Amino acid sequence: MFSIIYVEQQVAEHPRTQAICARFPKAARVSCDRYGEIFNPNAQDFRLQKRRPSLILAHKHHRRVLEAPHGYGLGGHRNYYFSHLLNCLYDCRYCFLQGMYRSAHYVLYVNYEDFGTDIDTTLATADNKPCWFFSGYDCDSLAMEPVSAFVQYFLPFFSRRPLAHIELRTKSTQIRTLLKQTPLDNAVIAFSFTPEEVYRALEHKVPTVERRLQAMLQLQQAGWQLGLRFDPLIYQPDYQVQYRTLFRKLFSQLNSQQLHSVSLGTFRLPRGFFRNIVQLYPDEPLFAGTFSDTQGMISYPQPLEQEMTEFCTREILQHIPESLLYPCTLAS
Amino acid sequence: MINLVVALPAEARPLIEFYRLTEKTTIGSFRVYRHQDMSLVISGPGKIAAAAATALLAGNNTSAKQAAWLNVGVAGHATYAIGKSLLAHRITDQATGQSWYPPQLFDLTTTTACLLTVDAPENSYHQEVAYDMEASGFYAVAGRFSSHELVQCFKVVSDNREQSAATLTAASCSRLVTEKLDEIEQLVGALLAMVQDYNSWHAPHAGLEQLASHWHFTVSQQHQLAELARRWKVLMPQQPLWLEGLEKKRNASAVLHCLRQQLDSLTPAVTQETPASRV
Ligand code: SF4
Question: ω before A183 within 30° of 0 (cis)?
Fold first, then answer.
């Protein structure tokens, strides 16, 4: 999988580093002072690197737990995110990571224990009120599980902290670790979907819609709380037919009574990220349409955005009660 | 386009013959050899010479397209056998401590290794790395002109703890490079394919020049025009960048308005056909 693993000297002896390197005995191990030497230089091409990203093992020093952007969340007031991993195994063309990072290498912060300490510190300031921690912000929460053992570490951690809720957001079918554990009341496994046609055009290397649905069914049967994320909604001339078909497929098989939440939001990107992505993929039809720029956020023109949101909301509400639906606002 | 930067004539000779780089010129004190989409410069030893030779080739490239870059040469190594080849996955300048990490995206059999650029010949081989005298100068400059994935260093081990560099001759340098021509050819092929993809993704619409010669576009309007031409190329790849009646438009802003209106009237599908090399 990796021909090169870059290792920060600081984490060279870390047990997680050792375990990960042992999984890839043929990979060249290249030491560095700070991962930024590899990840941050300007003259890099994310698109080229996506052909064969390497793994970087690093230590996360500061800002490990951050407040989630306004509009991100599931109704709770205290929303935070933490990223043990930067970048994703998959290659969705609409993904904001392409616009945010110069490098497509995966940065895995191995000091999970420090993330745990910071989560506890955050909880301590919350006056015994529930907090949400979102883990799939800068990566897919499950896709790299066989390498990262992230879920394996953090589920027991969250099981001992009932006021801390975790969302694992994913398009992956790596659910083995979850199936081995007792489901947690304070964990939601949220799967993202776009219609079949959009999936084929834009979600490269992602498991098929059907395989993701099968993974959800297994988890639901095992008792896990599940979420559905239709974010971003992608416009197609026949988007109504496509989304209606998708919703019917998912809701007809999943037990809607057992769903934790459903959220949706139209395609939107901060202006700078959008520009970077267009530079990388000038030939991508997704970016050749008409967009509006509202306060630095690029999105579909407002009437179209509203039409799509209203249509999808109407369709979804035919399957679930309104209390489960969370629209993601433009600001997120 | 690929540029080869080589320190010594003896290292360059096998490459010049293999790639039939028959067009020879001398620029300043540098000999440059060319054929079709390949140039080779003989820099002379040392990182400053390598940096200067790299800058010279870069300056000679008048096209907006990116070029791939390859530094080829012999290197010392503490333990690697003489004749073993390597591709540098880390280049460190010993004098400054600065490192570069050429991304390794190729599916090649060549071993990758750390390369330490030293200012004077290394005879004690303290570290388990390859030693050369050019790579950091080459990389620091080439990396300013091309994306780092397109800039690579390929070395053949010429000396080690067992056999010092004192035994090296011009003939043995040439032989070491000659024996690795197959590997070099594979690497050159991979780099050329990559740079071709890169340049084809970023090629401007062929009709842009025609428009720019008809009307005067300010710098800001040129950016807008380039953006509209990009969308045009995706949405109407078969159609020339032109509209009926466009010739009657008085100025650049009317032209931009017209093109934008046309593009905004289309409802693109993300599933529409585009070239296979898109991903
Ligand atoms: S799965 Fe999510 S994080 Fe991964 S590439 Fe797709 S959008 Fe980005």
Answer: no
As a residue count, chain A comes to 332
Flag whether residue B149 sits within 8 Å of chain A, measured between CB atoms.
yes
C-alpha span between A273 and B7 (Å, rounded): 41
The protein residue whose alpha carbon is closest to atom 3 in ligand 1 is: A139
ipTM confidence score? 0.94
- Cα(A298)–Cα(A296) distance, integer angstroms: 7
Q: How many C-beta neighbours within 10 Å does residue B4 have?
A: 25
Q: Is the model's pTM score more than 0.90?
A: yes
Mention the CATH class of domain B2-201.
alpha beta
Helix, strand and coil content of chain B, in percent to the nearest 5, comes to 40, 20, 35
Q: B279 and A30 in contact by Cβ < 8 A?
A: no
C-alpha to C-alpha distance for B276 and A177, rounded to whole angstroms: 37
* pLDDT tens by residue, A210-256: 999 999 999 999 999 999 999 999 999 999 999 999 999 999 999 99
Residue extents of the structural domains in chain A: 61-327
Residues of A in contact with B101 (CB under 8 A): 6, 30, 32, 37-38
Q: How would DSSP label each residue in A37-70? A: HHH--SS--HHHHTTS--EEEE---S--SEEPPT
Residue A308's Cβ-count burial label (10 Å; 0-12, 13-18, 19+) is: buried
What pLDDT digit, counting tens, does each position of B12-57 carry?
A: 999 999 999 999 999 999 999 999 999 999 999 999 999 999 999 9
Rounded distance from Cα B241 to ligand 1 centre (Å): 35
The fold of the A61-327 domain, in CATH, is pyruvate-formate lyase- activating enzyme (3.80.30)
Counting one residue from A and one from B, how many pairs have CB atoms under 8 Å apart? 115
Please name the residues in contact with B109: beta carbons below 8 A apart, sequence gap of 6 or more. B183
Distance CA A124, CA A127 (A): 7
Whether residue B278 and residue A284 make contact (CB cut-off 8 A), yes or no, is yes
The rounded Å distance from CA B221 to ligand 1 centre is 35
Does the Cβ of A198 fall within 6 Å of ligand 1? no
Strands A325-327 vs A259-266: parallel, antiparallel or unpaired: parallel
CA of residue A104 to ligand 1 center, whole Å: 12
CB contact under 8 A, A236 and B269: yes
Give residue-wise pLDDT tens across range A270-300.
999 999 999 999 999 999 999 999 999 999 9
